[in-house]
């Protein structure tokens, strides 16, 4: 056993996925166990062995709790195995020439203290550490790329346009709103609590924000905030909110379909009734997935790193401590319990 | 009164719109009356006076039977006044420098034997008369532009792609299918009768076609015809068919939302439940209106006139004779009674 810990067999707490989920996920759909892991890469393997620091809770993970036929684009979790997802980690041992001990990376890793990553080519090496490392699960990671691709690539926004964002205080929404404000758009967000609405207006600089739970008529609420109609809708929730937006579109409205979290836990998704307006308004609804845009990651960094350093973009995280807190944090996402980007802190370095 | 009829006051049969419509339109929502009209343009006016030859029955006209708040892009019909819509007409007198007596035109005209058109700038002058004149209500008119814009501009089709078209034997669908076949796509259409299905396969050269009324499970039907999924859906019907398509999309599927005729007569449109697949498949649903593409009309002519002359594109019309047959023809459109493009023949020259 080397003195620096490499090669040692240590205990490794893991969050295990019990079985496929119907309806809202519960904490008991996962359980925390403790295994052991040897802190070195097997001889001849090009894997990397990492210590996980921050784990990311993201809405797309709900789809992965379904059987593989409708799990979405990454594939289902495996019952009896650890959950995996985006995270920030430190390389402890590497069999891959791109990575060496001490490197910081972000990408798909296990929900456990240490992971052996067998396809490390998909990891991003972290080059900038003057910003919080946890940001690489958010503004500087997959959610950042989601906001960047969805807003700039899908919506082709123009100064002065009217932008509406649902789930606007979340990992992606808060960033889209700030991008839109920096571009000179009129920006309104919806969220599910007074605290979140306050955050949108006071911290992120949205022009207006409202609590959708207090609006009996969402179409009327949107009409109030957008008397001239919506040019861009950044769609994170689906269902009734989408239907209300369809009644409030300006001509050539663009809807970036990023997520539909309100639908993920329903056995039958709600019906959307106002799609004929897509024709009348010559509107576009376009779905997208961030990984398809990862080749533009350098552009994201170039855009947001200066803004972060200058304090022109702020990013709010909701951190829970310890891998044991993971199941509750992930489950809470689907109840809207998080305020800002939900992160699980496994270790700080 | 001039010997050529110009200046004469003659009787003028008109199809009058009675009042706004709820549910399916009925023949009795219109009535035919006879007024009189002087066959000359008023002194100093830049109007044109036309004799209407062919009137076009188009699905978008249903929206114009609603009160103006949801009439769509042209505006409601006026209760007590003649219906108007696309048609082919001959100029009898002109106060506009662009037009002279004897010119043939297509564009918006009244459902009457003679019309005074006060904004003739919007009319298209017909230059090619070696093809049937009635085609300017169809393949060479608005429906032609609809097929052209929807397929080439909205869908960006590529050779070998899998194309599905609903209401495929209609004015637009039959043309989209032939465009797609000429490009080398695999093309399947749906329609509402055996006759129409036969037409699709035997006359228009679709690879496959099916009668949606005989398919208890539309998603299963599409799965059968598209085991690898749909690349392009040309949407003419909406509702359940759209929902079934959403379950059968390939990645980057494009849906050109041209019309949703199954929904126009419902008091509450059906719910569409499978929109989350738009995200997972990175799909795009885009609404469009042909008039926005009229600047490309020369390209349509350049494309289709040779095909028509060479017999490489065929166009099936369903003609009824006499303006008195107009209400039944228009109403029949929403019951699927027409086989091919529905045209009302008012006069042949």
Molecular structure report:
Two copies of one chain form a homodimer. Chain A is built from eight helices and 15 strands. In chain A, the strands form three sheets. In chain A, strands 3, 4, 5, 6, 7, 14 and 15 form a seven-stranded mixed sheet that branches. Chain A has a six-stranded parallel sheet with strand order 10-9-8-11-12-13, sandwiched between helices. The first copy, chain A, folds into two domains: 9-138 and 315-345, Quinone Oxidoreductase, Chain A, domain 1 (Alpha-Beta Complex), CATH 3.90.180; 142-291, Rossmann fold. The model of chain A has no long low-confidence stretch (mean pLDDT 95). By secondary structure, chain A is of the alpha/beta class. In chain A, helix 3 links the parallel strand 9 and strand 10 (208-211). In chain A, helix 1 crosses helix 2 (173-183) and helix 4 packs across helix 5. Chain A is globular. The A-B interface holds A 63, 72-73, 238, 242, 257-260, 263-264, 268-289, 292 and B 63, 72-73, 238, 242, 257-260, 263-264, 268-289, 292. Strand 13 of chain A pairs antiparallel with strand 13 (284-287) of chain B, so a sheet runs across the interface.
């Amino acid at each position: 056993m080397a003195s620096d810990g490499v090669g040692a067999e240590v205990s490794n707490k893991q969050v295990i996925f019990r079985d496929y989920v119907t309806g809202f996920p519960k904490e008991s759909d996962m359980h925390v166990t403790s295994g052991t892991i040897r802190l070195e890469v097997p001889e001849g393997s090009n894997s990397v062995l990492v210590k996980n620091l921050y784990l990311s809770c993201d809405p797309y993970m709900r789809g992965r709790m379904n059987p593989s036929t409708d799990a979405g684009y990454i594939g289902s979790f495996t019952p009896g195995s650890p959950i995996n997802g985006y995270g920030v980690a430190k390389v402890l041992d590497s069999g891959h020439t791109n990575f060496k001990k001490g490197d910081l990376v972000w990408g798909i890793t296990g929900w456990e203290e240490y992971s052996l990553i067998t396809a490390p080519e998909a990891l991003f090496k972290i080059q900038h550490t003057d910003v919080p490392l946890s940001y690489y699960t958010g503004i500087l990671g997959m959610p950042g790329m989601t906001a960047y691709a969805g807003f700039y690539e899908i919506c082709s926004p123009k100064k002065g346009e009217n932008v509406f964002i649902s789930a606007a205080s979340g990992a992606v929404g808060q960033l889209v709103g700030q991008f839109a404000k920096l571009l000179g758009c009129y920006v309104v967000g919806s969220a599910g609590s007074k605290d979140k609405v306050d955050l949108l207006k006071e911290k992120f600089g949205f022009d207006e924000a409202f609590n959708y739970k207090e609006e009996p008529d969402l179409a009327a609420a949107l009409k109030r905030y957008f008397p001239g109609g919506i040019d861009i809708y950044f769609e994170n929730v689906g269902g009734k909110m989408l239907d209300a937006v369809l009644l409030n579109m300006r001509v050539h409205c663009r809807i970036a379909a990023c997520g539909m979290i309100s639908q993920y836990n329903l056995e039958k998704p709600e019906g959307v009734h106002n799609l004929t307006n897509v024709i009348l308004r010559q509107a576009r609804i376009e779905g997208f997935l961030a990984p398809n845009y990862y080749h533009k990651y350098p552009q994201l960094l170039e855009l947001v790193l200066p803004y972060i350093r200058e304090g022109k973009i702020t990013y709010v995280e909701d951190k829970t401590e310890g891998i044991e807190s993971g199941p509750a944090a992930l489950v809470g996402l689907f109840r809207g319990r998080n305020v800002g980007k939900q992160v699980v802190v496994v270790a700080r370095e």
